[in-house]
């Protein structure tokens, strides 16, 4: 596969069982091959998308000493600001050429989870940034819920299998700013090759060149979405759970050619995580003679901890 297939969520939400089945088949095939789809028909309207980009730009435009007020020690960068160069891809020593922000779950009716997660960080200078971030978080979470319902059916599970694991899940919305490049990056990239940690990722901002995905042959292919599409990919948690039936594909963000070094890139991934108690143990119906169990039993919380250490975000 050398292109990213495009699917429409309206098919899955349709009353017509043939359309619904078509969506499941298309996304299932895409995830068994390239691991990525571009999705139309998500729940973010144009105004929300526009406001979100504006607020994200406003935030990253703040002076560094203000942004640094919101960099909270001791929480593995899981909420608030993470400054330039802090995160390095697993196995890489050069930090990525990016700064980012994390909005976390807005827990409802669950004091235990509220106590477990770090609190969201509020930017005093930009009240609208906090509001719009929350609204986008909710709409992306809702979109992701339906995508996971389709994948549950594709995997031969109950349609609502994931619902209780993702309700109040440890999901994260991460606006990223890749600033203009000043000096020769010396081995550093905007985002070095990596697989995502979580169940699925919904990415806003893949409209310009930059994101590349590695196919079966090891070739890097450009992954670009239309203006009304989200790029959605499988993360390592879902790959483990499905015994790698669904593929968590390695991807990266390359540095622009020199004549474009002066431009920023903004992208906004939503990393859909379950609650930390979810067992990622390989599903029985994904194991057979030809596909023996490939992964050790582990919970989502344990797996996340391990990976935050690999990224240099947690000590
Ligand atoms: O900026 C992008 O387009 C992709 C970012 C990404 O892959 C990530 O943050 O995991
Ligand atoms: Fe990623």
Overview features:
IPNS-like_FE2OG_OXY; 9 helices; Jelly Rolls; DIOX_N; 315 residues; metal-binding; 4-stranded antiparallel beta sheet; Flavonol synthase; alpha+beta; binds fe (ii) ion; 13 strands; binds 2-oxoglutaric acid
What does this structure look like?
One of its GO terms (molecular function) is oxidoreductase activity. It comes from Polaribacter gangjinensis. Belongs to the iron/ascorbate-dependent oxidoreductase family. Keywords: Iron, Metal-binding, Oxidoreductase. The protein has 315 residues and is α+β, with helices and mostly antiparallel strands. The protein has a single domain, classed as B-lactam Antibiotic, Isopenicillin N Synthase, Chain (Jelly Rolls), CATH 2.60.120.330. It has helices spanning 9-13, 17-33, 46-61, 64-69, 111-116, 127-154, 163-166, 236-241, 300-310, and strands at 6-8, 36-40, 80-82, 99-102, 172-173, 176-178, 191-194, 200-204, 211-214, 220-222, 230-234, 251-253, 265-272. A hairpin with a 5-residue loop joins strand 9 (211-214) and strand 10. Helix 2 (17-33) packs across helix 6 and helix 3 (46-61) crosses helix 6 (127-154). The structure holds 2-oxoglutaric acid and fe (ii) ion (FE2). Fe (ii) ion is lined by residues 194, 196, 201, 251.
SS content category: alpha+beta
Q: Which runs of at least 5 residues are low in confidence (pLDDT < 50)?
A: none
Element-by-element helix/strand order: EHHEHHEEHHHEEEEEEEHEEH
Examine the coordinates and then state which fold CATH places here, giving the name of the CATH topology: Jelly Rolls
Question: Could you tell me the number of beta strands?
Answer: 13
Organism: Polaribacter gangjinensis
GO molecular function: metal ion binding; oxidoreductase activity
Keywords: Iron, Metal-binding, Oxidoreductase
Pfam families: 2OG-FeII_Oxy, DIOX_N
């Amino acid at each position: 596969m050398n292109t990213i297939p495009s699917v429409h969520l309206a098919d899955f939400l349709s009353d017509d069982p043939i359309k619904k089945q078509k969506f499941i088949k298309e996304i299932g095939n895409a995830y068994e091959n390239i691991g990525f789809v571009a999705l139309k028909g998500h729940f973010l309207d144009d105004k929300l998308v526009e406001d979100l980009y504006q607020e994200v730009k406003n935030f990253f435009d703040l002076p560094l000493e203000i942004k640094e007020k919101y960099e909270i020690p001791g929480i593995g960068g899981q909420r608030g600001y993470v400054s330039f160069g802090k995160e390095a891809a697993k196995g890489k020593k050069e930090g990525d050429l990016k700064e980012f922000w994390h909005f976390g779950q807005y827990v409802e009716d669950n004091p235990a989870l509220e106590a477990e997660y770090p609190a969201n960080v509020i930017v005093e200078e930009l009240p609208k940034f906090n509001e719009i971030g929350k609204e986008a978080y909710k709409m992306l979470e809702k979109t992701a819920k339906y995508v996971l319902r389709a994948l549950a059916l594709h995997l031969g599970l109950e349609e609502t299998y994931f619902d209780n694991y993702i309700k109040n899940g440890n999901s994260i919305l991460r606006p990223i700013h890749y600033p203009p490049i000043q000096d020769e990056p010396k081995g550093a990239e905007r985002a070095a090759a990596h697989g995502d940690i979580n169940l699925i990722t919904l990415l806003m901002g893949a409209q310009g060149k930059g994101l590349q995905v590695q196919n079966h042959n090891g070739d890097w292919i450009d992954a670009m979405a239309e203006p009304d599409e989200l790029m959605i990919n499988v993360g390592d948690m879902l790959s483990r759970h499905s015994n790698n039936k669904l593929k968590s594909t390695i991807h990266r963000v390359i540095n622009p050619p020199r004549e474009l070094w002066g431009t920023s890139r903004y992208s906004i991934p939503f990393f859909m995580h379950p609650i930390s108690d979810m067992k990622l143990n390989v599903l029985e119906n994904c194991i057979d003679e030809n596909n023996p169990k490939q992964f050790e039993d582990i919970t989502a919380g344990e797996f996340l901890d391990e990976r935050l250490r690999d990224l240099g975000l947690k000590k």
